[in-house]
TrEMBL record:
Annotated positions binding S-adenosyl-L-methionine: T67, D85, D110, A111, S127
Root EC class: transferase
Name of the coding gene: ubiE_1
Protein name in UniProt: Demethylmenaquinone methyltransferase
Biological or metabolic pathway of the protein: Quinol/quinone metabolism; menaquinone biosynthesis; menaquinol from 1,4-dihydroxy-2-naphthoate: step 2/2
Database matches in HAMAP family: MenG_UbiE_methyltr
Enzyme Commission number, as recorded: 2.1.1.163
Family: Belongs to the class I-like SAM-binding methyltransferase superfamily. MenG/UbiE family.
Top-rank taxon, per record: Bacteria
CDD domains: AdoMet_MTases
Species the sequence originates in: Microbacterium hydrocarbonoxydans
GO MF assignments: demethylmenaquinone methyltransferase activity
BP GO annotations: menaquinone biosynthetic process; methylation
Substrates-to-products reaction catalysed: a 2-demethylmenaquinol + S-adenosyl-L-methionine = a menaquinol + S-adenosyl-L-homocysteine + H(+)
Length: 239
């Protein structure tokens, strides 16, 4: 593949291909997301920040941070936030936008083998990233490992709207409209074809909750946002 050829990831989720795809869309990623979600991305980010409930002095891992919009939102609380991602292109864009925040650092990291010690973080979170990991159950175990006893987990991820009519309309939008919006916004539309496929293939809210429990987390709960387009999952590591 040439440097300028669009990178098309698939449901095999080869880390190199997925990372390369996100490298290519990094510059326009936030703009395209805002267009595709009709501004709901900002509302979802605010809901995630409230669920994490960051406090000054806490150490928080934002895994799959992308361009670090979510990390910056968390860091404004005064917490020490680590923005981690396996896409160097996304991290570079995050540093360009938010590198001036003194309590925000950036680390290139594989979600299935995190470069952190045991029990380092008061809270860990992922937004729209667990779905892109080739072994999401292992990633949940890694997040458990690096979290302090009593620490918090928040996963915000695309999910399955429970209403049948709305679910059908949403799937039509993802399949037919979303890639066209991405191309109009000047982004790799093939990447958003993959996005639709990965959402369609992803387990529903209850299945993801069971994965979280299997990884050792307790007090597992979720709530739907925007009629279940995304679901905000929360849990805690036992004391």
């Amino acid at each position: 593949m040439t440097p300028n050829e669009p990178n098309r990831a698939d449901l095999g989720k080869d880390p190199a291909r997925v990372s390369g795809m996100f490298d290519q869309v990094a510059a326009g990623y936030d703009r395209t997301n805002t267009a595709m979600t009709v501004g709901n991305d900002a509302l979802w980010r605010a809901a995630t920040t409230r669920a994490v409930a960051p406090k000054p002095g806490e150490r928080i891992l934002d895994l799959g941070a992308g361009t670090a919009s979510s990390s910056a939102s968390l860091a404004r609380s005064g917490a020490e936030v680590v923005a981690a991602d396996f896409s160097p292109g996304m991290l570079a864009e995050g540093k360009r936008r938010h590198g001036g925040m003194r309590n925000l650092s950036f680390v290139e990291a594989d979600a299935t083998s995190l470069p952190f010690g045991d029990a380092e973080f008061d809270a860990v979170t992922m937004s729209y990233a667990l779905r892109n990991v080739n072994d999401p159950k292992k990633a949940l175990r890694e997040l458990f490992r690096v979290t302090k006893p009593g620490g918090r987990l928040v996963i915000n991820e695309f999910s399955t709207p429970p209403g049948k009519l709305f679910r059908g309309a949403y799937r039509f939008y993802n399949a037919q409209v979303l890639p066209r919006v991405a191309r109009v916004a000047g982004t790799n539309g093939d990447a958003y074809d993959y996005l639709n496929e990965s959402i369609r293939d992803w387990p529903d809210q209850r299945a993801l909750s069971s994965w979280i429990r299997e990884a050792g987390w307790t007090d597992v709960a979720y709530r739907n946002l925007s009629f279940g387009i995304v679901a905000l999952h929360r849990a805690r590591k036992p004391q």
